[in-house]
Amino acid sequence: MQWLRVASIVWLWVSGFHLVIAAELGNSPVSSQLDRTGWPDALTSQANVDTASRAEVLMFGKALLASEALDESGLKQRLGVAQVQLKSIRRVRDNLWDRLLSTYRTASLDCDEQVFCPRVRSVADLRQLAAAFTGDISPAHTLWVSNSQRVHEQILNEQLRVAVLRP
Q: What is the pLDDT of residues 18-44, one digit of tens each?
């Protein structure tokens, strides 16, 4: 079961890497600001990797929730496009929520009494958890929160821009 957890986490990070490569091809500044070294705790054990993964999932969920609050004109402005395909954007968002839920569940298999570890049964549960998540554990985590938020917003913007340009 541990290999499945590690595979899911690697898949999430590789997905982010592929987005960065795609962004580079599109001359986007995403890659220059993507830095995964900001997590303040050592990633020396599976439990630490899982904690960091859950926190990253929740931060991406926060960015996704914020994007859902935008109307059509807000999306156009944020993505820098002339037209938006709301159906395509909705499909991408739904897919992202499903992937986030799967990754969060996998990283939560053995996390009793650890931080960022409430159990979730559905996307609705994950959405509520992401909305309430602050990442405010210590001063060291505060810097991670601001960096992570920026990175996830940029990655999400690239995903949504692709959904608009290639529905």
A: 444 343 334 333 333 334 457 888 888
Nearest to 61, CA basis, from 166, 167, 155 = 155
Two structure tokens written together for 7: 């595979």
Please count the other Cβ atoms lying within 10 Å of the Cβ belonging to residue 149. 16
Reported pTM: 0.76
Query: Helices 2-25 & 86-107, crossing angle to 10 degrees?
Result: 150
pLDDT in tens, 144-157: 888 888 899 999 99
Mapped onto helix, strand or coil, the DSSP state of residue 44 is coil
Distance separating alpha carbons of residues 42 and 129, to the nearest angstrom: 24
Backbone angles phi, psi at 138, to 5 degrees: -150, 165
**Residue range 77-115, pLDDT digits in tens:** 999 898 888 899 999 999 999 999 999 999 998 887 777
| DSSP state letter for 37 | G
Q: What is the pLDDT of residue 155?
A: 92
Non-local (6+) Cβ contacts of 63 within 8 A are 149, 152, 153, 155, 156
Helices (H), 34-122: 46-68, 72-79, 86-107
Are 5 and 50 in contact, with CB atoms under 8 Å apart? yes
